[in-house]
Amino acid sequence: SGSVAYASYKDALGSLYYDAWTPEGAGNDEANTFVRITVASDGTVIDARIITPSGDERMDNSVRRALQRITSVPPLLDKSKIQQDFTIMFTPKVKRMLE
Fold it and tell me: Cβ contacts of residue 53 below 8 Å, gap of 6+?
């Protein structure tokens, strides 16, 4: 179904960004930074920005660096869409669990 494909794509997208992220000096292990990533149908990242900062400047700067590292991702699964937005939450505690 479409919602399963969306969830799988979003998980894959999250993995790509978490792999690119190095939370250097993030002081708060529970800090959350929310980002919105806009992906074109061909996988080009149109926009990637913080929509809710964590309040920890070092954490947010490390997330910004990860966003800048990725300029393209796999093409969208839903070929009827010109572009699609995804929201991802960055948390140092989750990053450590994934390593």
Answer: 33, 60
42-58: b (≥16 Cβ within 10 Å) or e: eeebeebebeebbebee
* Residues 27, 54 contacting (CB under 8 angstroms): no
Contact 33, 59 (CB under 8 A): yes
**How are beta strands 83-90 and 45-52 bridged, if at all?**
unpaired
pTM: 0.88
3-state secondary structure of 10: helix
Mapped onto helix, strand or coil, the DSSP state of residue 25 is coil
Walking along the chain (99 residues) 10 residues at a time, the average pLDDT comes out as 77 94 75 96 97 93 96 91 95 78
